[in-house]
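Example with several molecule types.
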Amino acid sequence: MTSSDSALRKSRGRPRTPGAEGRILEAALEEYGERGWAGFTMDAVARRAGVGKSTVYLRWRDKDSLLTDAIEAHSSGIEEVDTGSLRSDLEQLAANLFRHYMDPIGWATVRLTVDAATASAALGMFGQRVARRHSESLFAIVGRAIERGEVPADFPTMTLFQCLYGAVTMQSMTLLGARRDLTDDEIARRVTPLVEFVMPS
Amino acid sequence: MTSSDSALRKSRGRPRTPGAEGRILEAALEEYGERGWAGFTMDAVARRAGVGKSTVYLRWRDKDSLLTDAIEAHSSGIEEVDTGSLRSDLEQLAANLFRHYMDPIGWATVRLTVDAATASAALGMFGQRVARRHSESLFAIVGRAIERGEVPADFPTMTLFQCLYGAVTMQSMTLLGARRDLTDDEIARRVTPLVEFVMPS
Amino acid sequence: MTSSDSALRKSRGRPRTPGAEGRILEAALEEYGERGWAGFTMDAVARRAGVGKSTVYLRWRDKDSLLTDAIEAHSSGIEEVDTGSLRSDLEQLAANLFRHYMDPIGWATVRLTVDAATASAALGMFGQRVARRHSESLFAIVGRAIERGEVPADFPTMTLFQCLYGAVTMQSMTLLGARRDLTDDEIARRVTPLVEFVMPS
Amino acid sequence: MTSSDSALRKSRGRPRTPGAEGRILEAALEEYGERGWAGFTMDAVARRAGVGKSTVYLRWRDKDSLLTDAIEAHSSGIEEVDTGSLRSDLEQLAANLFRHYMDPIGWATVRLTVDAATASAALGMFGQRVARRHSESLFAIVGRAIERGEVPADFPTMTLFQCLYGAVTMQSMTLLGARRDLTDDEIARRVTPLVEFVMPS
DNA sequence: AATTAATCGAGACGGTACGTCGGGTCTTATG
DNA sequence: CATAAGACCCGACGTACCGTCTCGATTAATT
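Resulting C-alpha cells for the full complex:
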C-alpha cells in the first residue's frame, strides 16, 4: 500500500533490503501486542526490527500507516468453514470471529476500522477493505446453501452478515477488557442463540 | 465518576468554580469534534474553556478520563420511541441510532467503547455502561410488545439488541469517512431490511 | 591532496568519471558559500554536483577533507607583490590579504584553520600549510629588502608576519558580518597605520 | 542575551527555576570540553544539567545560541595585569592570552568569533563584544603607561592591540592541535620577541 | 478582622516520542 | 572489477504534549 510503487523499477543503487519490510511489520505487531496503542513507539519498532528509523519512514509515512498496514497484513481474514450445513457453518464462522477478536491484534482490526470511520482522509478505506474480505467468507457459505436449496436464491446475505458480525462485535465490546480467554465452550454458548435468532430452524 | 465525590463536603477554602466543569466538558467535545483523537490535547481544551490546566486535572485524572466523561455525558442515549407497534418502534430506534452515529461525538462513543475493550484498566467498564443504557430503550419497547402480545414473553431481547445495534454499527463503520450526511430517506432504506430480517412480518 | 594518488594507474575496471572531481569541488565551494558551515552537507554537495554520495566518499575521506581541499584549492594564496620598497610591498600585501578575507571562501580559510586548531586529528596540518604558503610571500619581500639593505639580515620576519597577518585577521573578525564590501580606499586607510606601526619610517 | 527579557515581569505562572540557567550553561561547557563540537549534544547537556530538553529550549533558541552564551559567559576576559612597566605588562597580558587559548573553551571564543564573522545574522555582534572586552585590559595598561610618561599620549593603542593579539592568535592557530600544553617557559619564549618587536626597548 | 485552606489562571518543569535529516557504510547494477 | 547510485544504520535535531509543580491571586468558612 505504501511500499510497492512499481514492480518494474530499474532500481539503480542499493536495492531495499528484502527482509526489512516483513521484519518491521512483525516487530510492529509484537510491540502493539505487548504495549498497546499507548506504548506503541516507532523507535521501539525500529529497534526490535534491527533497523534504522529512516528505513521505517522510507516505507511508511507515519505511525498510523505502519500500524494499519501491519494489522491489515496480519488479519488475513477468518478461516473458511464448510461443514455441509448452513447453520453449523454460521456457528463455526461466528465462533472463529469471536476467537479472532480474543487476539489483541484481531481486535485491533476493529479499533482501526472505527478510527478509519472517524478520520476522513488518514486511514482511507480501511473499513471497506476489511468488511469485504470478511463478508466474502459468508457469501461463499450462503452461496453453497443456496445451491443446496437450504435458503432461497434472493436471501439477504449482506443483512445476515451485518447482523451476525455486528452481534459478535457488540458482545466483544462489552466483554473484552474484563476477560479475553473464553473457552470454546463459552464461545459456543454465546454463538448458538445468535445463529438460532438470525436463522431460525 | 471522577468529579462528583460527595455533595456533603464541608469545604473550607475556595469552592470550585461552578461553571468550570461544564465548560471543560463542552470544550473537550468541541476539540474532539474538530481535531479528532490525534489532535485532542489537554492544553487546547483548557485554553478553549478559559481555564488553567490544573483546574482540569483537579477534576479528571487524565486525558482518557476527561474524554470518556465528556462523551458519555453528551451521548445521553437514544431518544425513546413508542409508536404502538414493535416493528415501527424498532425502525425508529434503529434510525435514531443511525443518526446518533452520524454525529462525530455519537460515533466517538463507539470509538471509546472499542478502546475500552482493549486497554484493560484505563477506561474501565465504559462499554458495559453504554450498552446497558442503550439496551434499556429496547427492553422497554419489547416489554410493551410482550404486553400487547406481539411477541412471546421469553423473547430473546438481548440477542435482538446485539443484532440490531451490531448491524447498524457495522454499516456505520464502512459508511463513515466516505460520507456522514445521510438523509432520513436513505437511513430508512438502510434500516427497513434490517428490521424485516430480525423481525419477519 | 586526498584524491590524486598517482596518475599512472593501470586502471583496471571502470575509469573514474573525468569531470567529477572538479564538479564536486565546485559544488562544495558553492554550497559552503551559500549555506555556511552549518548548512554544508555532503548530500547537498553530491546532489548539486549531480553525483552519488559514494562518488564523493570515494575521493574524500570525510566532510572535513572535502571542504579543506575545496577551500585550499581555491585559496591559491595571496598574489605576489614587488614594488621595489619594503613599506609599500607590505601595504600591498596587507591590502591583498584584506581583500582575500572579503571573499567568503577566502575567509573560510581562517575558519578552517581555527577548526583545525581545535580538532586534534581531523583537519591535520591545515593551519601550518596555509601559514607556510602565506608566509612565503612575506619572506620573499623581506628577502629582497635585506638585499637592498633596507633592513638588517637578522630581521625577525616571522614575527612581522604574525603581527601583520594577525592584525589584519583581527580587524576582519570584528568587521565581517557587519559589512564585507570595503573599497580599496577604506582598506588602505586600515592598512597604512598597521604598516607604519610595525615598520616605523 | 536570550533570557533576560526584563526584570519587571509581572510573572504570572510558575517562575523559572533560578538555578537552571546556570546549571545548563555549566553543563554545556563541560560537555563541550569533554566531547568537542562534534560530540556536543543538547540531549546530553539537558541530562547533565538534570533538566528537561524543553527547559533548555525555553531559554535558548538552538544549539548555537546555547554554546555561544555558554562560552561568552565563561570567557570572562583575560586577567588584569599591572606590574608597573609597560613592557612587562604587555608580556604578562600576551602570556595570559596564550594560556587562555590553551584552554579548549578559551579557544572556542576565537572559533565563534570567526563563525560570527561569516554568518551575518546568527551570532550577531559576538566578535565586537569579545574584542571590546579584551581590548579594555590593554587600554588600561597603556593608559597607565601614558600617565607614567613611557609612551606619548597619542600612542596607537588599537593598532598595538590588533598586532599583539593577532600575533598570539596566529601562533595559536598553527600551534594548537599539535600540542596544547605549553609550559610558562615556552610561552615566555614565544611572547618576548613579540613584545620586543611591537615595543622596541 | 484576621486567619486558614482550597481553588483559580498561568505557565515552567522533567520526560518521552515524534518525524526529519545528516554522516559515513554497504550492496547492488553498470560500464 | 572499480565506479556510481542510493538504501542502510545510527543518532541528534527541534517540536509538541503529558501530567506535575509552583507561583500569586481569589474566595469562603473558621477563628
